[in-house]
Amino acid sequence: MLEFAILGLLQQAPMHGYELRKQLAEVLGGLRSISYGSLYPALKRLHAAGLVTTDEPDRRAPLPADAPPLTGRRGKVVYTITAEGKERFAELVSQAGPEAYDDGRLFGVHLAFFRHTAADVRLRILEGRRRTVEQQREGLRSSLARTRERLDRYTLELQRHGLDSVDREVRWLSELIDSERRDPGPGQPAEPQRDAD
């Protein structure tokens, strides 16, 4: 998931680690906070795989005259996506199977980079995510029906809250799917509306 998000951000512009971490927090929102302890090993793996290159500053170069006192000699390493990295990113955004929607965090990364994704793939991912969440909802409903009498009121409220959250996600996904069918984006034909039987 992290490598997918990094490649997606580097697709837009080269960045150093601090910028990447900041952009990841913005793109992923509340999905996950990214620590430097997970970011830099991921960058190292991407570099070793040839998916990104690094541009390291010359440590022997003199510091600028306006550098603040006690400025360290270590400059920022800038990461740039390679042609192989762009190919890998294209593979990742085109995946529409369960790996794209079963895990909520990976689904969130896919959603964050939907502008790079073909309309038919976006629709398959959204529909797959909705099916997954609907199955979770049915499991929660079934569990609540079986255990309602044995639960104290606080645990019961917690389960109801979980069910409400899942219901909201199903409605949200349905709205996204309807919107995608109406307007799939430039150059993409709209899918014909299906009658509900």
UniProtKB/TrEMBL annotation:
All copies of domain Transcription regulator PadR N-terminal, residue ranges: 6-90
Keywords linked to the UniProt accession: Coiled coil
Region Disordered: start-end pairs: 177-197
Top-level taxonomic group: Bacteria
Coiled-coil ranges from the UniProt annotation: 130-157
Record flagged with keyword Coiled coil: yes
InterPro entries per record: Metal_resp_DNA-bind_regulator, Tscrpt_reg_PadR_N, WH-like_DNA-bd_sf, WH_DNA-bd_sf
PANTHER family xref list: CONSERVED PROTEIN, PADR-FAMILY TRANSCRIPTIONAL REGULATOR
Protein name: PadR family transcriptional regulator
